[in-house]
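FOLDING PROBLEM:
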Amino acid sequence: MNLPLRFPHLSLLLAFTLTALPLPAEPLVLRHRWQLSEPAGATSFDDTLAPGDSARAIQLRGPGATVAGDGRVALPGGSPATAPWLDLPNGMASARPGDATYEGWASIGGSQISARLLDFGSSTMGEVSAPGGTGTASEYLGLLSQVAASQTNQRLTLLENGTLAQADATVPYTAGQTFHFAVVYDADGNNGQPQLRYYRNGTLGATVNSTRLLKNILDNNCWLGRSNSSTDNNFQGAYEEFRVWDGAMFPDEITDSIAAWPSGQLANALHIDTFNAGAISIYSGQSTTLTWAISNPGGPLTASITNGVGTLPAASGSTTITPLTTTSYTLTCGNGTATRTATVNVTVLNPVITANHAALKAVYQTDLPIPLPAVSVPVVPMSYTDELYHHPPPGPRPAHRHRPQSHLPAGPGLSGTR
């Protein structure tokens, strides 16, 4: 005779942690710097990190620009069919191994519909080296100097493999006034996923979260002042310097760079290469690991992390944390001249438990153990009701031996009624 033994079947929902795989530590390294300080009438501008190397030079494409030998290249704007622009070497996006920062100094001289401060990508026109051509953009990293006809809006945008992500920044406009712009690509800046940030004069103006990778962009048209779409006008204004960095600049590094210009680059290269958590979402009672790496201290380094971690013993390392609630950890480091900060958020969740009734059949008057198919019982109490005892078949009540923990690891085991 087979009679049912009924019990609730317990399970845990969302019993997992979200892990942000840390990318290799990436110092901030200047890869290109164009100061545009060539003599009047120049059409080629050396990378000051590799003077005389034509493969790394910026080329002025098309007639009508003003190069007066004063460290500025002034572009008149207008239709890309005739207007000039600055052509950088290919690979400004795809050659970056991970994080990247693009910064420059420019001024806007007039309104040009959807003009680009920078556009690194490709077009159905193919690779273009002269005014003209008709086509649409295929992929790009772009910064619009104005959105449509609005000169008080700029747009940060990324299109890769058909996926577009963009955000607008509200900015002041004064014709001819020099401003600093920085586009930061942080490969794991959004909880392990890529994030783009646009800073105008050191102030964050727009943030774009995306799953697309900068290194995957096809970028054989890397331009200042022209769009990869022929329907957008060319930029009207002047460029005074442009730089490309490996590594994502922090806000205080952008501030330092602005302060050092035009005589030099960053006043201090102290940089937080890595600060992340092995798991950004954990359950109460679980632990995760904070990992950090700091480069180029340039002096006596001090570093600490908030919320119980304290002073760090070295410029790189890791520590285990077990937060009781959702917590933000801030790393602060300094060298007596500069200070850098970075923050990691760790979310602490409470498990959600559900119970579903199930049944199994046991052979009547058997001495064989009957394992119950429960899950997570070492940490979750499970109850049962023995239908055989409460609703026996006709005849003498059967003898029972209950050993609820005989098949379980050490833990709270079972509770119930006989």
